[in-house]
């Protein structure tokens, strides 16, 4: 039995903004989101000021004789150059973030996540035939997010996640890690994360995959190296001896 998590990331009522970032990718996503918010706010305020100025200074009462100016070269240069500079300022960090997300560094651990109707199967190819199913637990908290068998990974390690679907398209998403990738039947997609804090972090299938789409959570427990090694040894015995619990639960119409 693993100890209680040092931190947890899950949605909360009336939450505004992202969950706390615990990976370098999510930290960059949060920074980029805030950066864009500042830019869009400045643009909206500027446009609002210009509209108010036009309404006040150039209405028929205040300005009965309108200007007949047809061209203003300096002004035209300004309103062309400034938007270009804004787009460049957005594009540069955007491309850097995209490269960070898609360029997987050398992995310390590989996990294969297979989406099924309606649960996840996790495999640890680096640790032999370690494989198990993860279903939503109806008797645990948080509601609709807790699972019977959590995905366990070591802290401060690069974890490569390979995803596929066994039946329909699913989507593996953990907001605190900044990852979201489709699990497509017949195709192997890949993403990665490096959790910098121990704890348990929740996600969900983010693709409309059928009847029980809303009951397909993801729970990732991040532990230190010693706890992870202990868990691996125990999991090999547990899941080698215990039959899969997924098929029975998936076909239980009374759930």
Automatic annotation (TrEMBL):
The Cytochrome oxidase subunit II copper A binding domain, residue ranges: 106-234
Gene Ontology biological process terms, A to Z: ATP synthesis coupled electron transport
Cofactor binding remark: Binds a copper A center.
Sorted UniProt keywords: Copper, Electron transport, Magnesium, Membrane, Metal-binding, Mitochondrion, Mitochondrion inner membrane, Respiratory chain, Translocase, Transmembrane, Transmembrane helix, Transport
Domain Cytochrome oxidase subunit II transmembrane region profile: 10-105
Gene3D superfamilies according to UniProt: 1.10.287.90, Cupredoxins - blue copper proteins
UniProt membrane topology term: Multi-pass membrane protein
Predominant subcellular localization, coarse grouping: mitochondrion
Family recorded in the similarity comment: Belongs to the cytochrome c oxidase subunit 2 family.
Protein name: Cytochrome c oxidase subunit 2
Species name: Platysternon megacephalum
